[in-house]
Amino acid sequence: MSENKIMRPIRQTEMDYWNFTIDNEYDNRKNSLKSEMVDEINDIADANYSKFMKALKIDKLTKDVDKLYKDYHKFKSEKELIELELKRKLDKSVNALNIQLDKWNKVRKFHDGHFKRGDLEDPSKHEPLFKKLCHAETERAYYASPKGRALKLLEISAKRCKHSLNAGLPLDTAVSVIHQEMQSQKINLDLPKNVFNPLMLEKK
Residue 197 in 3-state DSSP? Predict the structure, then answer.
């Protein structure tokens, strides 16, 4: 006695369902990974900030800007000549800071475009700016690391699921392959046992 299994093709409604399920599950997993990574990136960036500032070697420049900024605003209402001289010194110090940051930016590429002069001139904006630059640099390095590449692997896995779904396989075979692929990315479909019951014919 021989036994032949005739598998029915995937119906369009099933194709639509699995397309939606694959997209939804992988989007959820991607968002979960990103959420975990964002917290870790923030922690790493905070830990890197002191070393980041040392590497830039702009501590003296920022202190100069801070002092001259205070001097400038203290005497702003006084004689015009004093105001102009202090402003000249402040501008010179801000220019030096800008030149130094531009120089580092060419190497470290932590900022797109030019630095806003107002952000460099006002000491109260220094720390937020430098933390933003440090975070951008840390984030780029993180996503290039093995941990960050998990997102890329997730995208590749999703493509494999789509290929399996559209490969003309029987529904139960396609879902089995998709299920295994998702499990490799820690995505659990929670499929009920024997949820699929394809048409089975026996010929004796």
Answer: coil
Query: For the chain, how big is the Rg over CA atoms in Å?
Result: 30
Q: Which amino acid is at 13?
A: T
Express each pLDDT in 145-185 by its tens digit.
888 888 888 999 999 999 999 998 888 888 888 989 999 98
Closest CA to 174 of 18, 3, 13, 6: 18
Q: Where are the domains positioned within the chain?
A: 41-143
pTM of the model: 0.57
Long-range contacts of 44-53 (CB under 8 A, 24+ apart): 44/138, 44/142, 45/131, 45/134, 45/135, 45/138, 45/139, 48/134, 48/137, 48/138, 49/130, 49/131, 49/134, 52/130, 52/133, 52/134, 52/137, 53/130, 53/134
